[in-house]
Design a protein that fits this description.
The protein is mainly β. It is built from no helices and seven strands. It has strands spanning about 1-5, 10, 20-25, 30-40, 45-50, 55-60, 65-75. A seven-stranded antiparallel sheet has the order 1-7-6-5-4-3-2, with no helix packed on it. It is globular. The mean pLDDT is about 85.
């Protein structure tokens, strides 16, 4: 798992960051294909998402500091393979 700060484009209706639509990862725009799970914790919004190229990420928005962090989830079977 790799974690880092990231720029995120998101849909914001009633509140900011209702759902992410795309983010910049390693210099490449990743578009969100599907939100698998979303949850909130005090001051945080979390989204487990699948990208259009079927990679799995967790995006987290921290209200304090107005920042997004991303974690890429890699399955055990993919850990030995390069992308």
């Amino acid at each position: 798992m790799e974690r880092g700060r990231v720029q995120v484009a998101c849909y914001s209706g009633r509140t900011y960051a209702e759902r992410p639509t795309a983010f910049l990862w390693e210099g490449i725009e990743q578009r969100v294909r599907k939100i698998e799970r979303e949850w909130q914790e005090p001051g945080e919004k979390h989204f487990r998402i699948h990208t259009e190229d079927d990679r799995l990420f967790e995006l987290c928005y921290y209200e304090d500091g107005d920042r997004w962090l991303v974690t890429e989830w890699v399955s055990k079977s993919e850990k030995g393979r390069q992308r």
